[in-house]
Every structure is written in C-alpha cells, then in structure tokens.
Design a protein that fits this description.
Blueprint lengths: L2 H8 L19 E8 L3 E8 L4 E6 L5 E6 L4 E6 L5 E6 L10 E8 L2 E8 L2 E6 L4 E5 L4 E8 L17 E2 L14
Length: 180
Amino acid sequence: MGLAGLALLASTLLLTAQDGAPKLFGKADFEMEWRLFPQNNTLRVLYEAARQRLRIEALDGSDQVMIRDLATGKVAVLVANGKRGAYGTTAKPLAAFRPETIGEIRSVAGQECREFGFEGRKLCVTNDGIPVEVDLGEGKLVATRLMRKAQHPALFDVPKDVTLKPIPGANSGALPGVPF
C-alpha cells in the first residue's frame, strides 16, 4: 500500500456515536489486524481512546504508518518513522455515526458484531464500537485478529524532529473518499 493508499484510508476515518448506536472505535484502547481485499494486504490498527487516535501500520514491508486524529482530522503518514518521508493532511474530524439500516448479528474474527448500513456502505461493528468489517465499495477491510489492550500514547505522536510535507495527490482531488 503506497502513500496514496494510506491517504485514501485516512480520508475515511470519520464516524462516531449517536444515541443508541455504538461510538465507532469505542471508548477503550485496542489492537487489531485488518485484511484489505482484494489486495490481500494486512494492516495493523492501534487505537488510543483517550485522544481518539488511530495508528495504521502497513505490514507489506513498506515501513509506512498513518497516524489519524479522529477528533481534529489531522493525518500524518510516516515512512521509516519519518526518516524516508513524512507527509500530512487534514481530513474531516469524527462525525456522527447515524446508521441508515441495522442488520443481523454475526461473527467476524471471533467477535460478535452487528451489521449497519451507512452512506451506502456496510459495516459490522462490535457492541463496544470496533468496526471489524468495512465495505469500501471497491474493496473490504476484514478483521483477522482483535485484542482489547492498553496502548502507549507515544505510538500516536509524530516525532518532534519530523516536518510534514503535503501528501502527493491529497489536494488534487485524486484521492476518493472512503468510509472513515
């Protein structure tokens, strides 16, 4: 997954809570692996609930990490912890999660989740708000592993000595939107 792919994923991370619906990404820290189809890539997802920050690591050998602040919309993509590239942009902050449809309860990666329809896409979300399956339209993210555990806050910060440059293609409209 290249910078454009991580930026595309970044532009999708914008869902929250509504009365009766789970707060997307939840109120507790977790670590999860998502399989991205049809590319068949694996992404490690870490979440720090206190600051509503995601860390998405591409496990394809590219040494790319995206840090996404769901509250402010700030996105950073670091290559080799910023030593081979550091890029930033701003996406929409977390918005209200207002499911259009509520579907069946099923299991993904050993986790019980409920299907929701949202903006023409399907999500399967655990009772505590973790999206374990996300239909991206032309692709799908499916959890293969989920562990609810505390995360170290430093993992969600851009190193102080790193200067972020614009993500190539981020402002050209070349990056389509996705569900978070």
